[in-house]
Amino acid sequence: MAVAAHVLEHAARDPDRIALVGPEEEVTYAELAERIKARDVRAAAGPAVISVKDPVAALTQALAADLAGITPLVCDERAARLLADIPPAPLAEGGWACFTSGSTGRPRAVVRSRASWTDSFRHLDRLSGIGRDDVVLIPGPLVTSLYAFAAAHALGTGATAIVPGRWSLEHLDAATAVHLVPHQLPQVLPKPAALRVALVGGAALDPAARERAQAGGLRVLSYYGSSELSFVAADADGTGMRAFPEVEIEVRAGEVWVRSPWLADGYLAGAPGPLRRDAAGWATVGDLAEPYLPGGVLRVRGRGDGAIQTGGATVVPEDVEAVLRRVPGVADAVVVGAPHPDLGALVCAVVEGPVRRADLEAAARAGLDRVQRPRRWYTADTLPRTPTGKPARALIAETLTGFRRLG
């Protein structure tokens, strides 16, 4: 069932309830339904690319496409320009597409069926307690899958969704529920009187942060997954991550494999990415975990493909390296994550060759999203390499502070 169809049902049942609170306006379910039905969405070979800045307008366009059976893809202006260079590819009727965090160059957008989102709503309702009477703050950009799903879920449930379209806690006092990434949880404490639950995803949550929140009367539902796998496991009470409803989990040679109805179909236009499948319907993105028994606690160790988890976003090192290698004087570059107590990791770059930090930073600003830009810069006359000649990424990460800092 389309998310838009849920919105139309809520409009018929409770037309005056506020559906969306944006930077410029509040919109009732009745008004949202009329706007959705009034939009003329034409069939296209590819997704309906939505790049308007206003989050209320973006969601309205996405829902109109959804109602018409066309896959919506909310993106920022930069991603929209890059998408214009990709030949349209046919998509299955009735789906959603969202960007994975940190894509650059060729956009990496995950395409999924409607059901892979909407059929999971009832499980999230039960785990979180979110319902029609809630006001849900979604304090991040809708271009990323975490916040796009949060908005779709709130509207599908019939709640009020507050969508500033950027990181902002401006309306926290009015919210009963909030979606966060782990390092943001302390920022909502002490909690406002109305706030009762925080849904925390995107990276591992520090148990101490959960304890502080719960001691202050805020219930925390943390979860593990990815844009490609959707929900994999959830922790509703602090006892550990256990399989999300209808999800099967296996840890094979230390790697997490999942089989569930929530898996994405793949990447838009066949873009490369970490998603892999087997013939039995299992999928992985290379995350590593300790040995796992069905029904037990899943203990995730990190990404096996070198991806950097920073502030709830996933940065693919190869994307950043491709931009840095274009800087004059750079013979090669390796991007790794350095542990950080709040963000999970800092993006760090080690470059080979004579180059100025100012030139690297200028290239990063021009070619990378903010979350992808290195926070620390190092240089080496020659990068350590494997016997095959590739940069020894693991060794570089382990010995990062031994390289010269670029001032």
Task: Please describe what this structure looks like.
25% of the residues lie in helices and 26% in strands. It folds into 2 domains: 301 residues, ANL, N-terminal domain (Rossmann fold, 3-Layer(aba) Sandwich), CATH 3.40.50.12780; 90 residues, 2-Layer Sandwich (GMP Synthetase, Chain A, domain 3), CATH 3.30.300. The strands form 8 sheets. It has a 9-stranded mixed β-sheet with strand order 2-1-8-7-9-10-11-12-13, with helices on both faces. Strands 23-24-25-26 form a 4-stranded mixed β-sheet. The chain is globular. It is an alpha/beta fold.
- What's the β-strand tally? 26
- The CATH superfamily name of the largest domain is ANL, N-terminal domain
Q: What's the end-to-end separation, in Å?
A: 55 Å
Query: In CATH, what is the class of the largest domain?
Result: Alpha Beta
Side-by-side strand order of the widest sheet: 2-1-8-7-9-10-11-12-13
Number of discrete domains: 2
Structural class designation = alpha/beta
Q: Tell me, rounded to a whole number, the average pLDDT.
A: 90
Low-confidence stretches: none
Please, how many helices? 11
Strand content: 25-35%
- Evaluate the radius of gyration: 21 Å
- Helical amount: 10-25%
CATH architecture classification of the largest domain? 3-Layer(aba) Sandwich
Largest sheet: 9 strands, mixed
CATH topology of the largest domain: Rossmann fold
Rough shape? globular
Keywords for this structure?
407 residues; alpha/beta; Rossmann fold; GMP Synthetase, Chain A, domain 3; 2 domains; 9-stranded mixed β-sheet; 4-stranded mixed β-sheet; 26 strands; 26% strand; globular
